[in-house]
Amino acid sequence: MKKIGILHGQENIFPQALVESINARNEQGLVAEIIRIDKFVQGEPSGYDVIIDRISHDVPFYRAWVKSAAAYGAAVLNNPFWLDTEEKLIANVVAQQLGVPVPKTVLLPSNQHPPDTNENSFRNMMMPLDWETIFAHIGFPAYMKPYSGGGWKHVYKLRNPEELYAKHQETGSLVMLLQEEIVFDAYFRCYCIGGTDVHIMPYEPRNPHHERYVAEFPHVTESLKHQMREYVLQLNTALGYDINTIEFAIRDGVPYAIDFTNPAPDANPDSVGQHNFDWLLNAVTEMVIRRATEHEPGKNNLNWGSFLRNATHGKLAGSMQPVISSL
Questions:
Q1: Could you tell me the pTM of the whole model?
Q2: Cα Rg for the chain, rounded, in angstroms?
Q3: Which of 72, 123, 277, 279 is the most exposed place for a label (fewest CB within 10 A)?
Q4: What is the CATH number of the domain that holds 142?
Q5: Which residues pair with 255 in a beta bridge?
Q6: Separation of alpha carbons 291 and 283, rounded Å
Q7: Gap between the Cα atoms of 142 and 167, Å rounded
Q8: Burial code of 298-309, b = ≥16 C-beta within 10 A, e = fewer?
Q9: Nearest partner of 143 among 169, 112, 105, 115, judged by Cα
Q10: d(CA 219, CA 227)
Q11: For 282-323, what is each residue's pLDDT tens digit?
């Protein structure tokens, strides 16, 4: 019997619905359940063939547990080893090499010294930074946000250099990105499941949270939606996400990838809407059953993405092949 486990935190609707959806398919030799951990002993397999991870990014104990499970052959969705190295800057670099438009971006050092460092730790940096060139490149208004993490934490809209200097003081030891503002006339959020299934949703980030999926952009052509779909597939193939969302801001007919590293995207029908929830539930159900069927005991069943796989052969992101595979 192959076991599928869902690891989750505060959310309830999607994890339970996923268990019920998988089990309702009545696939012979396959069962899904909510994971229960009563001990974590080094050297013991998890007992699961496939694990859907919705919470380990917030709980270090769970992150260690899913890594151990993966080391013993579990197909953890998403790959926890990649998620520990992924951050927004390198994702933008990969997108640029693939030809996917992203906002102009500059990396800023932390305002305060990280723990166990002092001014001597930064002797390779020229201070002050060349702010004049940075501001000319990015322009104002601009956005400043952490180079890793998400959830709209520590995100600032800046209208001039004085606001940047003031807000940077509030960021402590966080390393920040400074990005140009993309003034958009349409915005979309796209689910991508298993590197193959794409669901494009009109999205208005300026609306209250529960109304963000209540949006219409009738001027957006099918050709532009097709281009977004191709960008979604390229990015997820490269970065190796099994479950992800990618957001596009449309400016002058060009889709800019704004936010595309979301391993545990919103799956609450009260916010995403019932239609979008139903699509997600069906797509994840089919993908998980497929991964369980393909699971090979004792082997590496993770999706590493073509960026990391090609890196072992000295290839850049632009040379990636548009396929998803597991090592």
A1: 0.91
A2: 21
A3: 123
A4: 3.30.1490.20
A5: 250
A6: 12
A7: 12
A8: eeebbbbbbbbb
A9: 105
A10: 15
A11: 999 999 999 999 999 999 999 999 998 887 666 666 654 433
